[in-house]
Amino acid sequence: MKTNILILLLGMVTSMSWAQNDITICHTPATEKFALFASNKSFNNEHQMPRAYVHVSEAGGEMITFACADGMKANAYVIMAEKKTNNWIFVFQEWWGLNDNIKKWSEDLFTEVGNVNVMALDMYDGKLATDRENAGKYMQAFKQDRGNAIVKGAMNYVGKNAKVGTVGWCFGGGQSLQAALTVGKQTVGCVMYYGMPEEDVNRLKTLNSDVLNIWATKDQWINKEVMDKFEVNMKAAGKKLTVYAYDADHGFANPSNAIFDEEAYKDSRAKTIAYFKSKF
């Protein structure tokens, strides 16, 4: 039964419709496919409960709100460079939400990359999970249309001259790639940590940057099959993909997580910092 579920979730889910004697194949969107995992107990249990952590900004980070085209407001944690710059990194949360661990990661990026502003987007609109049950509910309730509206609202906030890199983990790994697609010509880089890739080659063809893809070989969900398919699709789209695989498990890069792998974290973090430094 477990094997059948995995095949259903990770395989290509298609439906067919006939119009003028042509067959149209519809793929399950990446965000929806990843959200389906939350209905599986094994996936939820793989996410170790994060340790309590309170981040106090040393770089002047603060929460802001901005308008979105869908008529709603959005929230973000923003750290601005002392000297004005159009370089921005958009940060995307794990399935827990925009918690203090993500704010700490944002500040690390800000400090180590240099010459950038950093914006961690609240993709759950104020909801924050401290247990697996709510994390799963929030992830399943998330709609990509709303996510796209948040990213577009952020783009209006940073302006038409901004150069934007994206990074995220878990749920946010997939959102990092979706945001890179949404940002369009202003995208300069994209980093994914164990996130669900986009499968639509035609969409991938619109990417304005390469992608740095980081994943864990012990991850049962964002696994080798998923990663191999992503490589094939990026090649078909004519886009550069750099891949680093670590002998670790899903969530290894979260220092507040019991599954944290310090060696893999330090190496992947160094590669992420170097990647963004090469973009700005």
Structural overview:
- The protein contains 10 helices and 10 strands.
- With 280 residues, it is an alpha/beta fold.
- The chain has one domain: Rossmann fold.
Q: What is this entry, summarized?
A:
The chain has ten helices and ten strands.
Any key phrases for this structure?
alpha/beta; 8-stranded mixed sheet; two-stranded antiparallel sheet; disordered N terminus; Rossmann fold; 280 residues; 10 strands; 22% strand
* Helix coverage percent: 25-40%
Strand content: 15-25%
- Please give the count of helices: 10
Gross morphology is: globular
Terminal CA distance reads 48 Å
CATH fourth-tier homologous superfamily:
Alpha/Beta hydrolase fold, catalytic domain
Number of beta strands: 10
Gross CATH architecture: 3-Layer(aba) Sandwich
Structural domain tally: 1
In angstroms, what is the radius of gyration? 18 Å
Largest sheet: 8 strands, mixed
**Broad structural category:** alpha/beta
Placed side by side, the strands forming the largest sheet appear as 3-4-6-5-7-8-9-10
What series of H and E elements makes up the topology?
Answer: HEEHHEEEHEHHEHEHEHEH
In CATH, the topology is named Rossmann fold
